[in-house]
# Entry
Amino acid sequence: NAGVTQTPKFQVLKTGQSMTLQCAQDMNHEYMSWYRQDPGMGLRLIHYSVGAGITDQGEVPNGYNVSRSTTEDFPLRLLSAAPSQTSVYFCASSAGLLLNTGELFFGEGSRLTVL
Amino acid sequence: DQQVKQNSPSLSVQEGRISILNCDYTNSMFDYFLWYKKYPAEGPTFLISISSIKDKNEDGRFTVFLNKSAKHLSLHIVPSQPGDSAVYFCAASAYTGANSKLTFGKGITLSVRP
# Structure
């Protein structure tokens, strides 16, 4: 079972460059989300989606764009990378829109460094 | 302002003893609480959860206690094993009308000494 797959696992960018972090899940989950993990900050929600065509902002959305054209994929785009976006990014999905009916399944993470 | 607080950044216990990881929250709308475990270079994995209508949930060596009046929950691991060494995140969910969002704490690094 693949579960939640993130690519790339590592990426180094220069300030101002753009890139897309890919996330795909094969569990037919409606709910997908992106988190970033920073030292001493825990996991913070960037954007989330409750189904194809529906996205919403989380706690720290600035500098990131998302779209959800299919149930399986939820890419995260950085339009103009900044050093403050150096972080480890996690994609997560859930079968339930109400998270008290099912837990989040996380990908292995994508480590991004912006120079 | 952090709504889910894990004030102790680390905990070290001897193998075989009890590990108690604490978590406090401020938002009274939270109705579901979860614990996640994370090993280095891996994504977090779900460990155990508890609904706000309960005060205890047990799963093998892991028990979560919820004290709603104190807005406090704790994860007990008995007995602790070296393989339990990881970062533990407390998370809370609030129903927002159409869906839920999970809010995570900063995490606690647990080290279990052989």
